[in-house]
Description:
It comes from marine gamma proteobacterium HTCC2143. This protein is of the alpha/beta class. 33% of the residues lie in helices and 22% in strands. It has a domain at 85-429: TIM Barrel (Alpha-Beta Barrel), CATH 3.20.20.140. It contains 14 helices and 21 strands.
Amino acid sequence: MRSPKKTTHCLQFFAIFIMCLLPSQARLETTYDLVIRDGRVIDPASDFDGIRSLGISRGTIQTIDEGPLQGRVVIDARGKIVTAGFIDLHSHAQTQLGQKYQVLDGVTTSLELEAGAYPVAAVGNQIADRPLINFGASASYAAMRSKVLTNSDNPYLFFDGRPFSFEDPGFTTPLDAQQIERVMRHVHLGLDQGGLGIGLLLDYMSDAVTTAELEALFTVAAERKAPLFIHIRRGMAGDPRGLMEVIDLAKKTGAPIHICHLSASAMGGIEEFLRLFHTAIEDGVDISAESYPYNAGSTSIGAAVFDRDWQQIFGITYADVQLAESGKYFDRQRWDKLRVENPAATIIHHYGNEDWTQLAVKAPGMMIGSDAMPVFSESVKSHPRGMGTFSRVLTEYVRKNKLLSLPEALAKMSYLPAARLALIAPQFKNKGRIQTGADADIVIFDANIIADQATYTAPYQGPKGISWVLVNGKIVVQDGAVVEAVYPGRIIIGAGSHPSY
């Protein structure tokens, strides 16, 4: 007769044996909504890089496994990169067409943070109830100034398709002490509405905003722990004083700041701008920055910078500026005429240099943001950065020039933006990652063939090599094409949102 002790040991051994089998059996018995099978998974948050399968249900990553997984839908990702969807924290392309081209470029979250919206929910006006990808906005400081000065209740979204002018009082008129106090109340309201920080187009209102007003704004930002997304003031080409101004105010007040399109503001001063940026980090300033991988900028021909000595500021002439709609270059007569007749017309100004662009893109901590322009119709041309920014980084600076490793580039396009925004919006703790429990915002691409195809003369071309894109667990791009009638995008709001909004 077997002793009770031996029987107990046998039972324990059998139980352990069964437990070892259970994970494999559980994999076979669990059927996920969607499985991505055998891709090269790169998690930019943890530096994980290996062949794995993902099980996705209810919009989140449920498991990451080396073994086989069962799914109602299965994507064969062999030979392809599987990584977190790209987070564009500088996009004015909050339109149906804009979202279409951004998602083809691997973007799963597109945010209007430099200019913002006010009310913040106005960011959804053009997307309505059909968002392809996630979206959100900062609270627009220009709109708040305009409201105080004009008492207008019109919602504001930068370039939202309505007639627009930088002659609006919000951009041109100084505030007195009482008005500054009123506009600060609107800043609080914008953050209460769920603004993802504060959008500050400072260069567009250079003559209107005083140091006292800026200090009041930075103080509120510090109090609310709300990042300021800043288009810094421009001086002559390469002048760093605009960057120094906001760094000094951040030091004084403790406000978190983000520098929009740093290389486009720095131009030939890029080395000094980067030195100031990294010194500020070492000094404890809560600062971040982003750049885009193009050597030309784009804005409205009516922008305030063109009221100044813009040829000296940018180091260019009329012959270096294109009308986006036609691709034609300017002379002085055509320039002066269009500024009067259509100040909202989009122009592309070629003032960059590839060496400057590369210095910015490869800088430690530098994020990638597109500064995508708003697009409403393919009959009107636009800057190609709204169609190819992220694929261009992977093409030019990873595969061709080897300026960045693939994991480094992916972190700049997903994890770093998510980490920057996590304090103002906790939803970002589950984005920019390929981890169990993370949102299933995923891009799948072939690193050997990915290539941006959008050009200045033919911008409306999606990249090649991006096969699949998932947003909140739903397939929105399949075999490089947008899936019809699937709109899984969601608005993302800040942690300061008040229940009444």
